[in-house]
Amino acid sequence: TTISRAITAAVVRGKGAPFTLEEVNIREPEGAEVLVRVVATGMCHTDLIVRDQLYPVPLPLVLGHEGAGVVEAIGPNVTRLAVGDHVVMSYGFCGGCSPCDHGHMSYCKEFFGRNFGGSDADGKCAITDRQGEAVHDHFFAQSSFATYAISTEDSAVKVPKEAPLELLGPLGCGIQTGAGAVINTLGVRPGSRFAALGAGAVGLSAVMAARVAGAAMIIAIDVVPERLALAMELGATHVINASHEDVVERVRELGGGGVDYALESTGRTEVLRQGVDVLAGRGTLGVVGAPPLGHEAAFDVNDLLLGGKSIRGIVEGDSVARDFIPQLVELHRQGRFPFDRLVKFYDFEDINQAAEDSERGLTLKPILRMA
Ligand code: NAD
Ligand code: ZN
């Protein structure tokens, strides 16, 4: 029998049901796992689409995939992390397949199972409830809507002790997704034109990264005026309110024919279409917004081929978290990547309020404080 410890976790027990804080048990770390005392965890749109079962992860389930905390215990095979290290938990990957070997862990052949499987590779859960029943976990190799989470030494990224730990969790998903899409995948170049379709947490992270990358024109597009105002403060040179203006016409006008790079982060297929239409010749659209599984999108084929345009799907900003997260921490320290402007803190017990505020567009990036 494994030793386990009592923790508090936010459990989703039914499709679209509220998070309920429960006293549950979590086992100790094994192999290359680490047990992290969660200090704070971001909430991402992906948590909510899984709560609502648009992505089929089994219930009951502990969500949360932007956790930051302190290593409390390590498994016997851990060599890179030590008790007391400060870490940001990021996505899971196998480390042994061809994409992983080539430094593209977010396209790991086991990505879906390791992040959305709801258990470990053998189908086992680390968490049990008061009745002794298994609760699905390992969400994004962490399930950090809890006071403790099991991660691995591959997915838990060590960050400097001077860095503001309770702020850093969202670097593990939403923020590295937007920033990585711009820097790692699109490769936005100095002097170029960039448009963010969607100025939520992911889109605004892309705006900040486009500024770091030296884009000359940065257009932010959304339907929430406050988000557009913030985009201007974070480096956008132009904004478009999609509920009042013709997005395609306006971007073509501003860009003198279109933009070199665009990023779709709304998860809406009609916006994806706009993303293709706003590209200038040889431009690239990155797609990170996630509609419900099975959704299809349309675009004008001859416009795509005659324009030499590209559409690229992007997971987690194609980031090697262990390299990219410390880089973003350093850019933040220098004041060049002020992602703290996106954040609002909530107590852990106010998790449902955080979800509601996020869905109503009132809060860009909720962070739940555990302590
Ligand atoms: P969010 O809800 O904060 O952002 C979406 C934004 O789109 C909102 O600001 C909303 O007002 C805006 N929007 C809605 N309709 C619009 C329209 N017609 N035109 C322009 N803007 C419109 O969510 P987020 O946390 O930024 O995440 C964005 C998406 O990325 C989600 O679908 C999420 O699931 C996905 N995601 C993907 C990855 C990945 O690895 N690919 C990682 C994290 C999140
Ligand atoms: Zn996410």
Give keywords.
371 residues, alpha/beta, Quinone Oxidoreductase, Chain A, domain 1, Rossmann fold, 2 domains, seven-stranded mixed β-sheet, six-stranded parallel β-sheet, 12 helices, binds nicotinamide-adenine-dinucleotide, binds zinc ion
The H-level CATH homologous superfamily of the largest domain, spelled out, is Medium-chain alcohol dehydrogenases, catalytic domain
Class per helix and strand makeup? alpha/beta
* CATH third-tier fold name of the largest domain: Quinone Oxidoreductase, Chain A, domain 1
- Total individual domains: 2
Care to count the β-strands? 18
Overview in brief:
With 371 residues, the protein is of the alpha/beta class.
How would you characterize this protein structure?
- This protein is of the alpha/beta class and 371 residues long.
- It has two domains: 4-172 and 338-369, Quinone Oxidoreductase, Chain A, domain 1, CATH 3.90.180.10; 178-315, NAD(P)-binding Rossmann-like Domain (Rossmann fold).
- It has twelve helices and 18 strands.
- Strands 3, 5, 6, 9, 10, 17 and 18 form a seven-stranded mixed sheet that branches. It has a six-stranded parallel sheet with strand order 13-12-11-14-15-16, sandwiched between helices.
- It starts with a strand and ends with a strand.
- Residues 44, 46, 65, 173-174 line the site of zinc ion.
